[in-house]
Design goal:
With 318 residues, the chain is mainly beta. Helix content is 7%, strand content 31%. The structure holds zinc ion (ZN).
Length: 318
C-alpha cells in the first residue's frame, strides 16, 4: 500500500539508550521507534560459523557476508536473532517450523506480535529436546492512517472473505517452503530502484479502523518499473490475490522466502530458477493499493521480518 499522506513521524534514536516503549507512548498517534539493531552489541564471527557452501546453480554475484550486521543475539518484534545451539544439535525448530541454520547458530525470526521478554527455540540433541532461550527487546512502530476509496477493500464482502481464505492457502504454500539448500547469503539487493515509502511494521488505521500491521516494505516506484530478484532462488508461487494483486514468491532456501506484490506484469512462473538481478515483473497497483508501488515482504519460516534489516544498501525514504 502506498503511503499517500503520512501521520508517521520518527523520534531520533538515542545510541545506547534502549528505552522500553511505555503504554502511553504505544497509544500515541505519532509514536516512533526507539530501538534498532544497529544499537545492539555486535559479535565477532566464531571460527565454527563459516558460511555454508552456496547451493548448486546459485552463484554469489557479489561477495557478501552471510549475515548482515543487523542480525545479533538479541531480537525484537519483526527482527531476526542469531541463537547459539548446543554442539550436538541435529534439528532445530522455531515458531513450530524448521529453522535456518548457520554454523552452530539458528537464524530465527521474531514475529511482529511477540512480546518483549524472552523467546525460545527447540533444539534436538542426543540428550533429547532442549529449549534455548533468547532475549526480545521492545520496538515501537509508527502508526499510519490511510484512506481507501473503495470501502469493500477495507471491509471485504462475504464472497471476498471466501476468496481471501482460498488465497491464503496458496500464499502459505509458498511461504511455508523449506528447501534444504541454504541461501548463499541473507544480504539482499534492492528489488527496484526507488525511494522507500511505507516502512515495515507500521500499525495501520484504514478509514479509521485498525487493521493488521504492515508486514512488508513499500517502494514508491511508478507503474512499469522493472523488479529484479534481490538474490538467487526458485520461484515458489505466482498468483493474483485480493490484497496483494499479482504476486510472486521466491524461495531462496531453508525457509527464506521473498514476496513481491501489486505487479502490473509478471515475467516468471513457478519453478523458474532465478539468478540475482533476473527480471521478476513490473511494478503496478493491482490488489488493495492506493497507487502504484512495490510491496516487498521477507519471510523466514513463514514469519514476516523487516526487509530493511537485510538490504545491502538503504534506499532513501521518500
Ligand atoms: Zn506494502
Amino acid at each position: 500500500m502506498r503511503l499517500t499522506r503520512s501521520a508517521t513521524r520518527r523520534v531520533p534514536q538515542h545510541a545506547g539508550a534502549r528505552r522500553r516503549a511505555t503504554a502511553a507512548a504505544m497509544h500515541s498517534s505519532v509514536l516512533a521507534l526507539a530501538i534498532l539493531m544497529a544499537q545492539l552489541p555486535t559479535h565477532g564471527q566464531p571460527a565454527h560459523a563459516r558460511a555454508p557452501a552456496p547451493a548448486q546453480g546459485q552463484p554469489i554475484s557479489t561477495a557478501q557476508p552471510f549475515l548482515p550486521a543487523s542480525i545479533g543475539r538479541v531480537g525484537f518484534p519483526g527482527g531476526i536473532v542469531r541463537v547459539p545451539l548446543p554442539p550436538d544439535t541435529t534439528a532445530v525448530s522455531a515458531n513450530g517450523r524448521q529453522a535456518l541454520r548457520y554454523g552452530n547458530d539458528a537464524i530465527v525470526p521474531v514475529p511482529l506480535t511477540a512480546q518483549p521478554g524472552s523467546g525460545s527455540i527447540e533444539a534436538t540433541t542426543s540428550a533429547g529436546t532442549v529449549l534455548v532461550t533468547f532475549r526480545i527487546e521492545a520496538r515501537a512502530y509508527a502508526e499510519q492512517r490511510l484512506t481507501i476509496a473503495n470501502p469493500r477493500l477495507v471491509d471485504p464482502a462475504p464472497e471476498d472473505l471466501r476468496r481471501i481464505e482460498r488465497d491464503q492457502l496458496q500464499i502459505d504454500a509458498a511461504r511455508d517452503r523449506f528447501s534444504p539448500a541454504p541461501p548463499p547469503t541473507l544480504s539482499l539487493a534492492a528489488p527496484v530502484r526507488g525511494p522507500l515509502s511505507s516502512p515495515f511494521g507500521t500499525r495501520r488505521i484504514l478509514n479509521g479502523q485498525p487493521r493488521n500491521p504492515h508486514n512488508g516494505l513499500d517502494f514508491a516506484v511508478p507503474t512499469g518499473a522493472p523488479i529484479t530478484a534481490p538474490l538467487a532462488g526458485e520461484v515458489a508461487g505466482v498468483g493474483n490475490y485480493f490484497f496483494t494483486g499479482n504476486t510472486v514468491f521466491i524461495d531462496h532456501g531453508q525457509g527464506f522466502v521473498t514476496m513481491y506484490g501489486h505487479l502490473s506484469r509478471v515475467d516468471v512462473k513457478t519453478g523458474d530458477r532465478l539468478r540475482e538481478g533476473d527480471a521478476i515483473g513490473r511494478v503496478g497497483a493491482t490488489g488493495r493499493a492506493t497507487g502504484p508501488h512495490l510491496h516487498w515482504a521477507v519471510y523466514l519460516g513463514n514469519v514476516a521480518v523487516d526487509p530493511k534489516l537485510l538490504l545491502r544498501t538503504t534506499p532513501r525514504p521518500r
